[in-house]
Structures are given as structure tokens and as C-alpha cells.
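Propose amino acids for all 440 sites.
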């Protein structure tokens, strides 16, 4: 089978490279000529474990190609995935102008039956809108089907998530389209991956429902963390105790500085906006977003309190991306937190294994450091902002030599208090009691 993927952003490129790995011929199209030129040489414009190797393999084996030409993308492909951006507009609703533009391009150039699939998260009703746009711009009536096949991959483990998904959701408007899509995902049959086949709007909603629910879980445990701190309970153990109930599940119950990334904040806003549009305010989605923003600010208050004020203090920050194994800074808690710390007069020294370039542009005034121990220079506190593996085994004796105060602000709860306090550090974490240093 020959397919094409329009849009070589995160979702598009992972989709293209993974289908090529499944043995399908894939043409990836993007109208950014520079990006396509680089991709043709195997240069991937973002950080994601394993993607560069997969792209190189696809190119070498002749199943993966790149183009700026929409005709090439439409011509041979039976299935066309649309994976272009749907950025939020000022009212929180998703901007569909790129999706519609692609729809017009497909309509003008199609010469035979196509299955046109939305892969990015798109608001309920986008499939219908796309159908109208394509019908309107066709030069002569040619049959096509619309499918919603939302992507659930996580940054940092995108390839694994694509190759071994928990489920594949297919919202199709005909049996023929559903059969073609199932055929495309045939390699997953071996893994007995469940397929959920629905109509188009239901599949579109499954994506929002899933992301909003995960975001609610995080905001729930973050509120729980604040209450735990006040009553002297330990949120880690509360999560464990709750999560063992199969109806709840232990995942996404890790308290921290709040969620970030390109999906949760945007999808919550879009869901709230959809609710408003249909006359039903989606209260829980709105609350999860509000709690999340306040969680960023609560971290500032926590740091301020632990340091006895922020003016004149130096803080070392480890990790800036919204989560480990990505250079993505979109909606990262570090953005709000670091800016607030500096606004209140703190000096911030920071290091991230892969997002330094981007972060330095986004957080003016931050002192960029070259490596982990560099941030600790004269620091009054060391903040773990993102739980990269390399920050999980810090050499506390080495840190002691350069820090002014022995204070670890463990915003991701990665450390066991006994270990930290045993090295003479005060251990402040999220939703767990603060522990004072133990005498040597
Ligand atoms: C998410 C969804 O998981 C994925 O299915 C969807 O396709 C896109 O959005 P992603 O944004 O890559 O994926 O990251 P994810 O691993 O879900 O983490 C999101 C944020 O929540 C991160 O900032 C992370 O640090 C935070 N998080 C996650 C917590 O604070 N606590 C948790 O227990 C889990």
C-alpha cells in the first residue's frame, strides 16, 4: 500500500516513519522546503529517542520519501493522513485553517478514491468540516471517505507508543474506509491490539476525553499533595494506596509542578470551548487547567518559603523541558516558575540535557549552564524541575562543595528523604513532609 502524511511535525513524522517500518510506502509532505531538504538527508528537526534511526532506515530501504509537492502526496496514496498543526486561537478553540488548506489541496489534486484521515487532535466536527471543504473544492465529484484516527503517543516514547499502542481508535464513515485502515494497522494484530471502531465525531471525542481525563488525574493528585502537606501525610503513598485499586489505576498520579506540553493544556482549553459552544460548561476540564496553573505558582511559593525569601538568592535548576527525554518547552512549568523566581529578585542558573538553546530564548535573564554541577555554584537551593534520569543519582558531596545552602527542592519527588538528609541536605518535596538534615 502507498500512503502519504501531510505535515512533518511530531505526529506526522512519527506516523510516517513508523508506517514505513511496518512495510508501507510512505510519502511525507510539508510545505516548508528547508525542513523537507533536511529530512531527505535524515536530519530530524526535534529530539525523540529512536526517530532519527527509523527515518534513516525508511529512506535507505526506499519506503520513506519527502516532498513539498502536494500532487506527489495525493497522487499515489490510497490513504492520506493529515497531521498539520491546530494551534489554539485566543478563545482556546483550535485553529483549523491548516487542516482546511490541506483539504483544499487534496480536493484539487485527487483523481481517484481516497481515505482522508485526521491524525492530529482536532475538535469534534472537524471530519464533517473537512468533508464539506473537499466536496466544495473538487473539480469533479470523486468518492472519498473521512476517518478520524487520533494519535495517543507520548513525547519521549512516541515510537514505542506507536508500535505497541494500548488501542487503535478508528472513526470511519464507511465500511470500506474502516477495512482499509485496519489493513494498514495489520502488524498490530499479532500484539492483539484492541481496535475501537466508531463514527467520526465519537473518535474525535475519544482523544479529548482521554487527554482531559489524564490531566484531571494529575491536577487531582496535585491538589491532594497540597492537602497532604498541610495534614502531614505523604502523597506518594496516598497515590500508591489509591492506584492499586484497579478502578483507579496508578498511572498519572505522580504529584509535581503541574503538567505542560503541547497536548494537555491545549486540549483542556479546546474541550472547555467546545462545551461553551454547545451550551454546557465542562467544569472539570476548566478546573483541571486552573489547578495546574496554580500548581506552578504554588511551586514558587514553596521555593520562596524554603529559601526564606527570593530577593538576592541564587537557585540552581535541573531540567527545563516539560518532561524528560524531549526538548519540548511548550507550556513547560519551568517557564512560569523561573520567570516568577527572577521577578522576585532571584538569580537562576539552569541546565537541561537537550533544551538549553530553546529555553535560553524563552527565559530571558536565566544563566544557562553547561552541565549538572555547574548550576550549583553558590546556590542557596537546588531545584529538580524535570526528572531526567541523569538527575536521579546526584553526587551530594560534590554539590555541597559549591552550594551556599544545603537545600534540595525536589519538585518531582525523585529522591528518598533519608538519602538526601543523610548528606546534610534539607529535603523539600511535593506533598511529602519536609525533612531536615540529619547529623553526620
Ligand atoms: C500526552 C498524552 O499522554 C498522550 O497520550 C497524548 O497523545 C499527548 O499528550 P505528552 O504530552 O507527550 O503526552 O506527555 P505525558 O507523558 O502524558 O506527560 C504530560 C505532562 O504531565 C508532563 O508535563 C508530565 O510531567 C506531567 N505528568 C505526567 C505529571 O505531572 N504527573 C504524572 O503522573 C504524569
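Proposal:
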Amino acid at each position: 500500500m502507498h500512503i502519504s502524511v501531510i505535515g512533518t511535525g511530531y505526529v506526522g513524522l512519527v506516523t510516517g516513519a513508523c508506517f514505513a517500518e511496518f512495510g508501507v510506502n510512505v510519502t511525507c509532505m510539508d510545505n516548508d522546503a528547508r525542513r523537507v531538504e533536511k529530512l531527505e538527508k535524515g536530519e530530524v528537526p526535534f529530539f525523540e529517542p529512536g526517530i532519527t534511526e527509523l527515518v534513516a532506515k525508511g529512506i535507505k530501504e526506499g519506503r520513506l520519501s519527502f516532498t513539498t509537492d502536494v500532487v506527489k502526496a495525493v497522487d499515489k496514496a490510497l490513504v492520506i493522513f493529515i497531521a498539520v498543526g491546530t494551534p489554539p486561537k485566543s478563545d482556546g478553540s483550535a485553529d483549523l485553517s491548516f487542516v482546511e488548506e490541506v483539504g483544499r489541496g487534496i480536493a484539487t489534486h485527487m483523481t481517484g478514491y481516497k481515505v482522508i484521515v485526521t491524525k492530529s487532535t482536532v475538535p469534534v466536527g472537524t471530519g464533517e468540516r473537512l468533508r464539506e471543504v473537499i466536496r466544495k473544492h473538487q473539480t469533479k465529484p470523486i468518492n472519498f471517505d473521512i476517518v478520524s484516527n487520533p494519535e495517543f503517543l507520548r513525547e519521549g516514547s512516541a515510537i514505542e507508543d506507536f508500535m505497541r499502542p494500548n488501542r487503535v481508535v478508528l472513526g470511519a464513515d464507511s465500511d470500506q474506509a474502516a477495512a482499509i485502515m485496519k489493513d494498514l494497522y495489520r502488524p498490530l494484530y499479532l500484539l492483539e491490539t484492541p481496535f475501537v471502531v466508531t463514527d467520526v465525531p465519537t473518535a474525535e471525542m475519544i482523544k479529548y476525553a482521554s487527554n482531559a481525563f489524564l490531566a484531571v488525574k494529575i491536577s487531582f493528585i496535585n491538589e491532594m499533595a497540597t492537602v497532604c502537606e498541610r495534614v502531614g501525610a505523604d502523597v506518594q503513598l496516598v497515590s500508591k494506596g489509591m492506584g492499586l485499586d484497579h478502578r483507579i489505576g496508578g498511572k498519572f498520579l505522580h504529584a509535581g509542578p503541574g503538567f505542560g506540553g503541547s497536548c494537555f493544556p491545549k486540549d483542556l482549553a479546546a474541550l472547555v470551548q467546545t462545551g461553551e459552544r454547545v451550551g454546557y460548561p465542562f467544569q472539570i476540564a476548566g478546573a483541571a487547567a486552573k489547578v495546574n496553573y496554580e500548581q506552578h505558582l504554588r511551586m514558587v511559593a514553596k521555593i520562596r518559603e524554603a529559601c526564606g525569601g527570593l530577593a538576592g538568592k541564587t537557585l540552581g535548576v535541573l531540567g527545563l523541558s516539560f518532561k524528560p527525554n524531549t526538548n519540548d518547552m511548550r507550556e513547560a512549568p519551568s517557564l512560569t516558575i523561573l520567570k516568577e523566581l527572577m521577578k522576585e529578585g532571584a538569580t537562576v542558573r539552569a541546565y537541561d540535557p537537550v533544551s538549553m538553546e530553546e529555553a535560553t530564548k524563552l527565559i530571558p535573564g536565566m544563566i544557562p549552564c553547561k552541565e549538572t554541577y555547574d548550576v550549583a555554584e553558590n546556590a542557596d537551593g537546588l531545584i529538580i524541575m524535570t526528572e531526567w534520569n541523569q538527575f536521579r543519582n546526584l553526587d551530594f558531596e560534590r554539590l555541597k562543595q559549591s552550594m551556599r545552602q544545603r537545600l534540595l527542592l525536589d519538585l518531582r519527588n525523585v529522591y528518598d528523604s533519608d538519602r538526601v538528609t543523610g548528606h546534610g541536605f534539607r529535603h523539600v518535596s511535593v506533598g511529602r513532609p519536609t525533612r531536615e538534615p540529619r547529623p553526620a
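Residues 199-440 form a domain with the Rossmann fold fold (CATH 3.40.50.720). Residues 164 and 191 are 8 Å apart (CA to CA).
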